[in-house]
Structure formats: C-alpha cells, structure tokens
Amino acid sequence: MAEREPSNVDQWLERETPRVRKVLESASRYFDSNDTLTVNTLEAVYGQESSFGTMLGTRGSASAAGHFQFTPETAKRYGLSVSKKNDQRFDIDYASSAAARYLKDLDTMFSKRTTLSRQRDTIAVTGVSERKKFIVGAFNAGEGRVARAQRLAEKAGKDPQLWSDVAAYLAEETRRYVETVPRYELEFAQKSPADKSKKEKGVRRGRYHCTEGHRVTIDDRPVFICD
Asked: What is the CATH number of domain 8-226?
C-alpha cells in the first residue's frame, strides 16, 4: 500500500513552533463564548494566507503581505505600522492579534445589522454555523464586498443569510477560500495540540490598545474599531 502524503495541515503543524502556538493561543483570547472562533480558526487562516509564515511577501508593500496577508489599509486599521523599516504585518505577535481582532469584529458585524458606510450595511446572519462562512469570506474579500453581495442576493430574490446564495456575487477566489479554510480548521481541531480553551480566559488588559480609530454602527449603536 502506498504511503499517504502528508496534508497541508500536517506540514504546517511541523512548522508550528511552541512559540508560534503560544502566540496564536494568546491571540485567540479576543474570541469569546458568543462566537465559534478558536485558535484552530487562526491556524487555518494562517496556513491559508502565508503557509505558516513561509510566503510573506515584501516589507512595506502596498499589496497584501505578512503572516496574515493584510493590506496596508487593514493593517493600519488594527494599529499595525506599515513601512519598509517597520512593517508589523511581519511580526507574528502583532499580526496574530490583528487577525483575531478582525475575525471577532467580522463576527460582530454579521451577527447584527451593521452600517459600514452611508450606503452600505450588513444583513444579520442569525445562524451561527452559516455566519462562520461570512466571517471567513469577509476576511478574504473585505466586509464591504460581502455586504454588497448580500444586497445583490436579496435584490435577486435570494436569501442574504445563506452563503450559497450570496457567494454567487463574489469572486471565485473568495468562494474557494470559504470552502478551504473550514476544512483546514476541522483538521487542525483534530490534530493540533493548541489549547482551544485559551479564549475563555479573555483578553489581557492593556495589550494592543489603540487610541485612534473609527466607528461603525451596529443596531443603531456605535462600535469603535482601531485605525
């Protein structure tokens, strides 16, 4: 019998040093009991985005780069410096924190009606497992594009709370992303020694605090997001 080839997750787990695992576990503390996000979500996204730090791109790049392949705009929105001399997208501690905060914000944005701009708001996805697809899709495409796709689906008489209906109005890359990342997450959940219970301990106060940002409106209430 032919020997089975190691999966991507197997290879990534070989690259996951104890320090990287600890960093991802710490970042997962931005999640809580109200979401389905865990350290395995971060592992899956990290693997998909940069193959566990082996495909990072160029420091100071105007395009997506770093451990979680943030654009400069998204990185700065979460308090990361982006320059050739100091690009925190390439710092696993800062990048993991930003990725976790972004995923958590996306969960909040799509759990309730959220005004992203004067002309665009999300449609609440009440199903928890279904919302996970919107979170993952928005991490790849941006919440604005996903919210726009929801409205296009609704206008066409489809269900804006079903990813299968909304996905048709998004790029093929995003559709593949939402198919792939959850599979990786499930495999990480089965194989990774990372501690999923870390999120129950909550965020350490004072870490990655930002003083500048902007507000989005969720259920007519302002929510502050770092710039």
From this structure: 1.10.530.10
Question: 149-176 pLDDT, tens per residue?
Answer: 999 999 999 999 999 999 999 999 999 9
Q: Residue 89: what residue type?
A: R
**How many Cα atoms occupy the beta-carbon half-sphere of 124 within 13 Å?**
8
219 vs 131: CA distance, rounded Å: 17
DSSP state of 83: S
In which residue are the tokens 């066409």 written?
156
pLDDT digits (tens, 9 = 90+) for 67-92: 999 999 999 999 999 998 999 999 99
User: In whole angstroms, how far apart are CA 145 and each of 11, 108, 116, 151, 167?
Assistant: 32, 16, 11, 10, 11
